[in-house]
Design brief:
The protein is mainly beta and 423 residues long. The chain has 2 domains: 257 residues, no CATH class; 128 residues, no CATH class. It is 10% helix and 35% strand. It contains 4 helices and 25 strands. Strands 5, 9, 10, 11, 13, 14, 15, 16 and 17 form a 9-stranded mixed beta sheet that branches. Strands 18-19-20-25-24-23-22-21 form an 8-stranded antiparallel beta sheet, with helices on one face. Strand 15 and strand 16 form a beta hairpin. The N terminus is likely disordered.
């Protein structure tokens, strides 16, 4: 969570009681943003009934001494926070020349390598697999919103699960003062880095969330922030727990490879293509099944077709119960986006074989149904194979610069007999 502009601070008081929060969300479809603001205001000193949609944090005592702080300022009267989520996979934002697709890949690898060895990243969509996302917005138009790249994931540690979010940005303001209630400690490292840490909790509608964070203000002007909570989206039944200790968070935010000035190793590729939202309903596909399909996809011969990365890295889609992978076709004359989506529990299409100007449907001897569709206005081709087991494989060639991939290539993938549910 990124701090926004602060309101005037109040006069010192013995304590600041619980805070409530109002939440407003706005979706700006044209730019693919989802923006949420949280605005905190002190409650009256007298006890009151918990309001609907309430947000409660620990009481703050003031005056107070904080390790590493020569001066501690009083709690803030009001504070706003902004969160920006992206529905774009474009990394070429000219407003942030320090960042690029290969830079995101290098930072992602560094962050994942810096995790403790007993931690696993939960099987989730690319956006929630601890991969740094594009930086949104224009700093001249959206002050306080955007400006950072974010990586999120659910982390698994033994029988426990919790969430991690890491952001990196370029500093635009001086290092903030120490404020009561906003940090537990300020660390001064030998290289001039300053790290603020906090171990706290909050309650939303009576449900408590434990939270730890570390913010590093680095000598090159980078600001790295890591927040770990006991909120897990894994759904595996593991015990909720904050997955990282404070010192482990400090190690992440001070990793030299996360700094904006860290060079990108030669030959670093661009990030994987995101499978944009799809709405195939069906049973959730677990990681073990997806890995079996990965092995099949990796072995399919695609003669004469070159890809920017191999097939065989299926991840859950951002909506629905299926798994998917998208890659770029780099074959001259066939440059396009190749997407494979596999879902289960899909109904078998009924009706006779058909053929038309833009598509065809045919039933195979084993009962599987093959549907082919072509769009000439925005060149694309799709082959969808639905099997009697309910497994459906959809293979598409879109965003073609000239010609999309031939139907024969798409069927080579979609009709592979190995793409079935393991019994």
């Amino acid at each position: 969570m990124e701090n926004g502009d602060d309101k005037d601070a109040p006069q010192p008081s013995p304590a600041v009681n619980r805070w409530t929060v109002g939440l407003t969300c706005a979706a700006i479809v044209a730019t693919g943003y989802l923006i949420a603001w949280l605005v905190h205001e002190p409650e009256p000193s007298e006890p009151t009934a918990r309001a609907e949609n309430s947000y409660v944090t620990p009481p703050v005592t003031f005056p107070v001494q904080i390790p590493g702080c020569d001066v501690v300022e009083p709690p803030r009267k009001g504070q706003s926070f902004g969160m920006v989520y992206s529905d774009t996979d474009r990394y070429d934002n000219p407003s942030y020349p320090w960042f690029s697709g290969p830079k995101a890949v290098a930072m992602t690898q560094a962050l994942q390598d810096a995790l403790p060895g007993d931690i696993e990243i939960a099987f989730d969509s690319l956006r929630d697999s601890l991969v740094f996302q594009p930086i949104l917005g224009d700093p001249t138009q959206n002050k306080g919103l955007g400006g950072w790249t974010r990586a999120n994931a659910t982390l698994l540690r033994g029988d426990r699960a919790g969430a991690l979010s890491v952001t990196v940005r370029k500093a635009t303001k001086p290092i903030p003062p120490c404020v009561a209630g906003e940090l537990d400690e300020r660390r001064h490292l030998p290289d001039g880095t300053i790290v603020d840490t906090d171990d706290t909790w909050s309650e939303t509608n009576g449900v408590r969330t434990l939270s730890r964070d570390a913010t590093a203000y680095l000598p090159d002007g980078s600001v790295a922030y890591a927040n770990a909570t006991d909120q897990a989206a894994d759904g595996s039944g593991r015990t909720r727990a904050v997955p990282l200790a404070i010192d482990e968070l400090v190690a992440l935010v001070t990793d030299p490879e996360l700094r904006i000035s860290a060079p990108v190793p030669p030959g670093t590729p661009s990030p994987p293509e995101r499978c944009l939202r799809f709405s195939k309903s069906g049973a959730v596909i677990d990681q073990a099944q997806a890995r079996r399909w990965d092995e099949v996809l990796a072995q399919i011969p695609l003669d004469g077709v070159t890809l920017d990365r191999p097939l065989g890295a299926l991840l859950p889609g951002e909506l629905g119960g299926g798994v998917c992978q998208a890659v770029r076709v780099t074959t001259p004359g066939l440059q396009s986006r190749l997407t494979v989506v596999i879902s289960t529990d899909q109904p078998l299409p009924q009706g006779p074989d058909t053929s038309s100007y833009d598509g065809a449907t045919r039933r195979l001897p084993d009962g599987a149904v093959v549907e082919s569709m072509e769009r000439r206005s925005s060149p694309s081709r799709t082959v969808t194979v639905t099997r009697r087991s309910g497994v459906q494989i959809q293979v598409s060639s879109t965003d073609a610069s000239d010609e999309p991939l031939p139907f024969a290539v798409l069927e080579e993938i979609a009709l592979n007999p190995g793409l079935e549910v393991s019994r």
